[in-house]
């Protein structure tokens, strides 16, 4: 097995650490709090989703995965590897959000979606970790976002991505600034919606509309 294969396998395993560790920790807390419960206890969900140790461990695993895989390739081959890891981070971010919301639905008894959404928002580190991955993926490869877009369009998407990345920080206001949970939720959702609109709008906001050039007819002799 070559060094490239070894580094790719190690990175593959490390990328799964956040999800596997989160699920394992959730099952542990579930059994420890109420093993006979058919749904995940809300306390267990909040313990896992607010664990700073799980957050830091997952972050370290992702960083190690990127470093190990990139260093396993030659200098001239590292560009495409960074691009691939950037895309994987975005996929992982979506997977983390899906798994986190599925656990929140379980903590709400599988039927109360309103309570599930509330628990999901209170699970601070789950949301922060997912959007942190999106932000890091942008830093690793800005070309995935900017590409060949015009400066005005690129700026729009950069602002939108920044709003998405920092939207979870609104939830920290509940604990740090001692504001109400509805107000903190409103800040988070507001930044998220603004960022989503800016990214989806792209050239519709700041880009110039395309103009059709007049068709030139051949001159008659």
Nutshell version of this structure?
The chain is mostly helical and 221 residues long. It is 75% helix and 0% strand. About 5% of the residues have low confidence.
How is the secondary structure organized here?
Blueprint: H1 3-34, H2 42-49, H3 52-71, H4 78-107, H5 113-122, H6 124-140, H7 143-146, H8 151-166, H9 169-176, H10 181-201
Q: What does this entry look like structurally?
A:
The chain has 221 residues and is mainly α. It has 2 domains: 3-141, no CATH class; 147-206. The chain contains 10 helices and no strands. The chain has helices at 3-34, 42-49, 52-71, 78-107, 113-122, 124-140, 143-146, 151-166, 169-176, 181-201. α1 packs antiparallel against α3. The longest helix is centred in the first third of the chain and has 32 residues, at 3-34. The radius of gyration is 22 Å and the shape is flat.
N-to-C CA distance: 73 Å
Give the helix level as a range of percent: over 70%
Approximate strand percentage:
under 5%
Instruction: Give unreliable regions as ranges.
Output: 203-213
What keyword list fits this structure?
single chain; 221 residues; mainly alpha; 2 domains; flat
């Amino acid at each position: 097995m070559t060094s490239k294969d070894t580094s790719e396998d190690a990175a593959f395993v490390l990328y799964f650490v956040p999800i596997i560790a989160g699920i394992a920790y959730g099952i542990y807390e579930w059994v420890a709090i109420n093993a006979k419960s058919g749904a995940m206890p809300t306390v267990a969900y909040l313990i896992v989703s607010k664990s700073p140790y799980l957050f830091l461990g997952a972050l370290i695993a992702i960083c190690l995965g990127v470093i190990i895989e990139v260093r396993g390739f030659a200098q001239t081959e590292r560009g495409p590897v960074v691009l691939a890891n950037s895309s994987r981070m975005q996929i992982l971010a979506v997977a983390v959000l899906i798994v986190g919301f599925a656990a929140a639905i379980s903590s709400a008894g599988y039927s109360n979606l309103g309570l599930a959404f509330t628990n999901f928002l209170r699970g601070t580190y789950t949301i922060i970790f997912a959007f942190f991955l999106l932000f890091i993926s942008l830093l690793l490869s800005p070309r995935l976002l900017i590409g060949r877009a015009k400066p005005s369009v690129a700026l729009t998407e950069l602002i939108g991505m920044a709003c998405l990345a920092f939207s979870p920080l609104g939830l920290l206001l509940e604990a740090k600034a001692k504001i109400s949970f509805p107000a903190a939720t409103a800040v988070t959702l507001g930044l998220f919606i603004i960022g989503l609109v800016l990214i989806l709008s792209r050239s519709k906001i700041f880009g110039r509309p395309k103009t059709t050039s007049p068709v030139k007819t051949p001159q008659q002799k």
